[in-house]
Amino acid sequence: MDVSTFATSLSPQSTIDAVTTLILYSFCIVVYCIFIYNFYHFISKKNILKLDLQKYNKVTHFLFKKIARTVLYTAEYLTIFPLLIFFWFSVISAMLVVISDKLNISQILLVAMTMVVTIRICAYYSEELATELAKLFPFTLLAVFLLDINLLSMDTIVDKVQGIPAHYMQLLSYLLVTFAIEMALRAALRIANHFVPKEKKKIKLRNQKKK
Length: 211
What we know:
The structure is a single chain. By secondary structure, this protein is mainly α. The chain has eight helices and no strands. It is elongated.
């Protein structure tokens, strides 16, 4: 490094540019981490929707009340959950578009929805496991970006985004399958919650009789 280059690097303007870049990068990374933190905690929850539509159930007859409860519960998931699936899928797809330059659009859609389905299934087994899985891609993307900032190619990203509409049937089928899996998991959970407490009560009564 010659004297002129060293002097230029110490100039007020270069210092201001360096500090501005530092602050901008730090701010962007903080915002990204906060978003990802809330995202992976949100997607990994077993019970996501808490609209409590049951409070609008004014039916008094036992049978009709059961039917109304089922209808409200189904409506809650039919109206909101498909939007959540699409949101989760969009976020993961966007990350894959940025982080991978080798996957084509069809592969990106498959991997993104596979991640959504896997995270949701794991959430019913262990929310902690689902959380760990949900943070995998986002922080991998951040690490790759920090190690190679030149990885981002706007032309490649724009080309991939423009190619998504051509795969709308694939996307629609993935959304329907994911929604069906979630509904099956919810149904299984409700059945389990219905029978498990009874089994616990039976075990408790047996223990009391033994004493």
